[in-house]
């Protein structure tokens, strides 16, 4: 028998999916047959809207773009409403949206601390809240954490605290929804070639790559493939876990 992942008839909502890892996840789930809601942050220039719409155009059917700021629960509820209205439900939530505001704790402003906590941790709470009463039995919640949560990289007190919080939230929520067959897991990437990965200063990047046993950074679709597995029936008994995808790097 040939094994195949088929998500036909299932709807996935992917936060921050207008580029990078989120885009790759949305494309991967779509290619497995899922309906996908490409969530994007409506920035003043409208560039995320344009990117999200271009992805929807390239995917054709079974895709929609939907604006919302993960920091705002009302906006998240409205975005999930729109998704349910179009596709009839939500089966898979991928919490991908995230930002960096790196600085040593000594120099980090309260705003830099709070922005990262609001987006990377409260954003996950908000998205989970917005789907929790509507996600189907045997649903899937997958959050993108980070290797940084395990290692504690220099200059990332805000980011590491938020991502470690996401791993904690994952463990708790997995227990709270387990009886419905809903699984809740995290994926913790090492450094991945995206705009965020590119933003790392060149000398730090050189050091980081020297630490990766596989000798290279990861590609967005190498994260998306693991998300696809967790979103599928193949992972029906995997819950409360963090899957590390980092080329063998342990910091
Ligand atoms: P990226 O910067 O390319 O994409 C982040 C996405 O989040 C963007 O589409 C952005 O518009 C969206 N976003 C930001 N604030 C938002 C908000 N308030 N509401 C809705 N969307 C918002 O970054 P990348 O690399 O694709 O990162 C995706 C996830 O993977 C993030 O959670 C990041 O922390 C995580 N990650 C990335 C790594 C890397 O090396 N690139 C390593 C480990 C984790």
Fold and architecture overview:
The protein is an alpha/beta fold. The chain has a single domain, classed as NAD(P)-binding Rossmann-like Domain (Rossmann fold, 3-Layer(aba) Sandwich). It contains nine helices and seven strands; from the N terminus they run βαβαβαβαβααβαααβ. The chain has helices spanning 20-31, 47-59, 73-87, 110-132, 148-151, 157-177, 195-198, 202-211, 220-231, and strands at 11-14, 35-40, 63-67, 90-95, 135-144, 183-189, 242-245. α1 packs across α9. The N and C termini lie far apart (40 Å). The structure holds 1,4-dihydronicotinamide adenine dinucleotide (NAI). Residues 15-16, 18-22, 41, 48, 69-71, 96-99, 119, 123, 144, 146, 189, 191-192, 194-197 line the site of 1,4-dihydronicotinamide adenine dinucleotide.
Spatial separation of the terminal alpha carbons: 40 Å
CATH architecture: 3-Layer(aba) Sandwich
Residue share in helix: 40-55%
Class inferred from helices and paired strands: alpha/beta
Pattern of helices and strands: EHEHEHEHEHHEHHHE
Low-confidence stretches: none
What's the rounded overall pLDDT mean?
97
Total count of helical runs of at least 4 residues: 9
List keywords for this structure.
globular; Rossmann fold; 251 residues; alpha/beta; 7-stranded parallel sheet; binds 1,4-dihydronicotinamide adenine dinucleotide
Concise account of the structure shown:
The protein has 251 residues and is α/β, with parallel strands linked by helices. It is 45% helix and 17% strand. The site of 1,4-dihydronicotinamide adenine dinucleotide has 27 residues, from helix 1, helix 4 and helix 7.
